[in-house]
C-alpha cells in the first residue's frame, strides 16, 4: 500500500506558499527567456540592413 | 547531540522517516561523500584555472535556484503538517512500501540532501559547457538557450520520474506525480537552467556575479524566514 495522496486545495496555507513560489520561479524563467529571445531579435534587426 | 527539531505527529510515514535523519550526520554520514567532495572541488578548480569564472557562477546560479525550491518545499511540509512536495527519506522499509537503497549521507532539508547539492552545482557547470558560443545560434529554428533549457529540463524530469519510481524520491501531492509532470517541468527544472544560462550570458563576470548575488539574497531571506518560523 502506497502513501496517501494529498490535495493542495485542502491546505490553503500550503497552496499560498506554492503560488508564491511559482510566481518567483516563473519570474526567473521570464527574465531569462526575455534575455535569450530579445538578444536574438536585436541581432536579427542589426543584420537585416546588411541583407 | 541530537537535533531539537520535533516532528509533527501528522506527518506521513515517508516524512517521519526523513525527519528522523534530518541534519543528523551521526546517523547517516558515509565515506563516499568525501571523494564526491573532491571531484566537485576538482571540477570547480579546473574551470577557474582555465578562466571560466562565468561557468562556475552559472553552476552556483542553478544550485541556488534549487535551494530556493528546496526551501519552499520545506515550508509546504511545515505549513501543511503532512508532507513536502518531494521528500528524500532514508532507505528503509516502511510498512512494506520498501524504499530502495540506504538513503543519503546527509539530509540537509526534508527533500534535499548532500548528493543533490553537489549534483546541481555540477549540473549547472555541465549544462553551460554544452552551450554554443554563439548566443544567437538556432537549433531547429529555436534559440539555442531556449532549446537547451527545454531539452535538459525534459531529461532531468525523466530522471526525477525514475527516482520516484525507484522510491528514493517520494511524491505525496496530487499535483506533483508522474502522471502530471508538467508542473515539475515548469517550476521544478526550467528555472534552474534558465538561471544558469542567464548568468552565463552576462557580458561581464561582474554582472554574472551580481545576478548570482540576487539569487543568493533570495535564498538567504528564505533561510532566515524559515529558521525563524521553524519551517526548515
Structural descriptors:
heterodimer, A: 51 residues, mainly alpha, 0% strand, B: 232 residues, two-stranded antiparallel sheet, 6% strand, globular
Describe the structure.
- Chain A is built from 1 helix and no strands.
- By secondary structure, chain A is mostly helical.
- Chain B has 232 residues and is mainly alpha-helical.
- Chain B has one domain.
- In chain B, 59% of the residues lie in helices and 6% in strands.
- In chain B, a hairpin with a 2-residue loop joins strand 4 and strand 5 (142-143).
- In chain B, helix 4 (53-80) packs antiparallel against helix 5, helix 4 packs antiparallel against helix 7 (182-200) and helix 5 crosses helix 7.
- Chain A binds chain B through residues 1-8, 11, 13-14, 17-18, 20-22, 24-26, 28-29, 31-33, 35-37, 39-40, 43-44, and chain B through 12-14, 65, 68-69, 72, 75-76, 79-80, 82-83, 85, 95-97, 135-136, 138, 143, 145-146, 149, 170, 172-175, 177, 186-187, 190-191, 194-195, 197-198, 201, 218.
Helix coverage percent of residues of chain A? over 70%
**Structural class determined from secondary elements of chain B:** mainly alpha
Characterize the main sheet of chain A. Answer: none
Q: Give the overall average pLDDT of chain B.
A: 91
The counted number of beta strands of chain B is 6
Calculate Rg of chain B over CA atoms: 18 Å
Strand content of chain B: 5-15%
- For the residues shown, what is the average pLDDT of chain A? 81
Q: Oligomeric state of the chains?
A: heterodimer
